[in-house]
Design brief:
The chain starts with a helix and ends in a 7-residue tail after the last helix. The protein has one domain. The model has no long low-confidence stretch (mean pLDDT about 90). It has a 5-stranded antiparallel β-sheet with strand order 1-2-3-4-5. The chain is built from 2 helices and 5 strands. Helices cover about 45% and strands about 35% of the residues. By secondary structure, the chain is of the alpha+beta class.
């Protein structure tokens, strides 16, 4: 599969599988945390070699004045390097602390139905854990706001 076809395939995969999953997560976040959210939204970035999707969840800064961290980010990306495609994903705070991540996965063959099913299952596991870890990030920000020292947390 050449890069153009890989790009078209990944774009279709994103639109038909990834974005609907992310929309469900954003909906849960808004239902459970609407009172403290500035926003939670999906962002998409793509170029010739990278397709990435993220959920940016930003808390109302005036409610968390004792911390410099207000954002939890879920990120998924497919990176095309020559004939290879890699899948990465994580959930982190805006200061870079990773709360959960997928080990980098090397995609052998997008033409293989078995490979695509395996990747979908891997992503579904990630999505299943995502809401929990986004909530964990929100709770960490809240705890650190009470302490007033998010920057010192490890």
């Amino acid at each position: 599969m050449d890069n153009l076809n890989k790009n078209l395939y990944l774009e279709k995969w994103g639109n038909e599988f990834i974005i609907p999953q992310l929309e469900e997560i954003v909906s849960k976040i808004k239902i459970n945390h609407n009172d403290i959210l500035s926003y939670s939204r999906i962002e998409t970035t793509k170029n010739d070699t990278i397709f990435s999707w993220l959920i940016s969840t930003v808390l109302k800064p005036y409610m968390f004045e004792n911390t410099d961290i207000h954002e939890v980010v879920l990120s998924i990306s497919f990176q095309i390097k020559g004939r290879n495609i890699f899948l990465d994903g994580d959930i982190s705070l805006e200061d870079g602390r990773i709360l959960y991540e997928i080990d980098r996965y090397f995609i052998l063959d997008l033409n293989s139905k078995e490979e695509c099913i395996h990747i979908n299952n891997l992503l579904l596991q990630f999505f299943d854990m995502s809401f929990y870890f986004i909530q964990k990030g929100i709770n960490l920000i809240s705890e650190e706001n009470k302490k007033g020292n998010v920057s010192d947390f490890n």
